[in-house]
């Protein structure tokens, strides 16, 4: 293996052991490196400095209301799919200080200084989460008002994405044109083969991260073999593939979905799903695109020191729709309808695209196993 000059668009081959060189290089460049690790029985993002911290040989089993990890002897680095964490946890954190105020003899002194965060390099990001990142970019950066903290974190983000070669039963990224292959949005795109990695270099930052790693350019056959990995997976996920599909695959029919949902706001399925829904908000917490938040004012006992915090909120809480006259969406049925119709219909009116990427997290992490794809199918079947 010899190092060769790199340009964007190159495909290179590296030994699996050489992934450590990329991680070390990112640390050297000043990044805080985060990637998938096993945390409390789930694959979740955490800080890492050694690739041995990755869940090597681990695969995940996911179904509605079900998540389990299984250890294998495969030695694969990235054959699990997605856990409860996404890039949202780092760019739009669950709790964030907005400003602080300290009272002195001269009055109140406010500090709303801009965020100075260490840049983050995220390893192992999947196509669905890159699509979710693009959606959140539209939310926080694309309008008249730019979120300065999000913008700072986003500018410093390095992304080493991974093409999926395996899907779980809750994945439906193919329905949302969000995977399983990474098309754009990353600096380096990794495809895991049996005994090596193929990396596609998409940006100058990707070239810089690979500068000290032994590599060689791929042949046309090696490129084709790498591209076939996710292409074959996507074909097996499709309803009309003609191949043996993955077990219990899911699909979301998006044709006419906006009008379908908004024309059926009194459909009996809303009440039916409300009988099972706990209104716990798990689906909004794990969703990589949900962005609702609330702001709290917190002071010490003396009243001389106060600060303002922004925290994740959920449309499943009563406070979310509370106005002077009370809670607007007082029932679980109304709250579930608000979440689903916003995600798949009015999000289009607001941002020009749907707010779902088909990652399946809302299905997996729902305590009672409510399935978004099944709910839409039920409404479509009995549409007025």
Any overview of this molecule?
This protein is α+β, with helices and mostly antiparallel strands and about 375 residues long. The chain contains twelve helices and 16 strands. It has an eight-stranded mixed beta sheet with strand order 3-2-8-9-10-11-1-12, with helices on both faces. A four-stranded antiparallel beta sheet has the order 7-6-14-13, with no helix packed on it. The model has no long low-confidence stretch (mean pLDDT about 95).
Terminus-to-terminus distance: 63 Å
| Total helical elements | 12
Net shape: globular
What's the arrangement of strands in the largest beta sheet? 3-2-8-9-10-11-1-12
The major pleated sheet works out as: 8 strands, mixed
Total strand segments: 16
* Proportion of residues in extended strands: 15-25%
Short descriptors:
single chain; 384 residues; alpha+beta; eight-stranded mixed beta sheet; 12 helices; 29% helix
Short description:
It contains twelve helices and 16 strands. The chain has 384 residues and is an alpha+beta fold.
Secondary-structure map with pairings?
Layout: E1 11-15, H1 19-28, E2 32-39, E3 42-47, E4 58-63, E5 66-71, H2 88-91, E6 95-104, E7 107-111, E8 120-125, H3 127-141, H4 148-155, E9 158-162, E10 188-192, E11 196-201, H5 204-209, E12 216-217, H6 220-237, H7 257-262, H8 269-274, H9 282-286, E13 293-299, E14 305-312, E15 322-323, E16 326-327, H10 332-351, H11 361-364, H12 372-381
Parallel strand pairs: 2-8, 8-9, 9-10
Antiparallel strand pairs: 1-11, 1-12, 2-3, 4-5, 6-7, 6-14, 10-11, 13-14, 15-16
């Amino acid at each position: 293996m010899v190092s060769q000059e790199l340009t964007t668009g190159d495909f290179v081959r590296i030994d699996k052991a050489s992934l450590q060189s990329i991680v070390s290089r990112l640390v050297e460049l000043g990044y805080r490196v985060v990637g998938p690790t096993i945390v409390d029985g789930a694959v979740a993002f955490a800080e890492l400095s050694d690739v041995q911290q990755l869940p090597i040989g681990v695969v995940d089993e996911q179904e509605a209301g079900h998540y389990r990890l299984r250890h294998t002897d495969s030695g694969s680095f990235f054959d699990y799919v997605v856990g409860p964490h996404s890039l949202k946890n780092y760019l739009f954190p669950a709790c964030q200080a907005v400003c602080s105020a300290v009272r002195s003899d001269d009055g109140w002194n406010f500090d709303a200084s801009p965020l100075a965060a260490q840049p983050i390099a995220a390893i192992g990001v999947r196509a669905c989460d890159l699509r979710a990142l693009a959606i959140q970019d539209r939310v926080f950066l694309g309008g008249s008002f730019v979120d300065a903290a999000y913008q700072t974190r986003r500018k410093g983000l390095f992304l080493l994405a991974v093409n999926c070669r395996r899907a779980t039963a809750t994945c439906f990224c193919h329905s949302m044109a969000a995977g399983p292959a990474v098309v754009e949005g990353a600096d380096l795109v990794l495809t895991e083969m049996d005994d090596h990695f193929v990396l596609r270099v998409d940006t100058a930052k990707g070239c810089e991260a690979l500068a000290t790693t032994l590599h060689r350019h791929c042949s046309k056959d090696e490129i084709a073999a790498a591209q076939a990995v996710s292409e074959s997976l996507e074909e097996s996920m499709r309803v009309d593939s003609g191949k043996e599909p993955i077990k219990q695959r899911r699909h979301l029919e998006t044709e006419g979905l906006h009008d379908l949902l908004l024309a059926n706001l009194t459909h009996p399925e809303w009440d039916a799903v409300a009988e099972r829904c706990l209104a716990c908000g798990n689906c909004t917490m794990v969703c990589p695109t949900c962005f609702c938040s609330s702001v709290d004012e917190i002071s010490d006992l003396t009243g001389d020191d106060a600060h303002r915090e922004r925290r994740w909120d959920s449309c499943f809480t009563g406070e979310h729709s509370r106005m002077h006259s009370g809670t607007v969406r007082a029932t679980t049925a109304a709250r579930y309808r608000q979440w689903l119709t916003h995600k798949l219909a009015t999000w289009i009116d607001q941002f020009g695209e749907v707010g779902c990427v088909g990652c399946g997290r809302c299905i997996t992490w729902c305590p009672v196993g409510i399935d978004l794809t099944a709910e839409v199918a039920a409404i479509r079947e009995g549409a007025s």
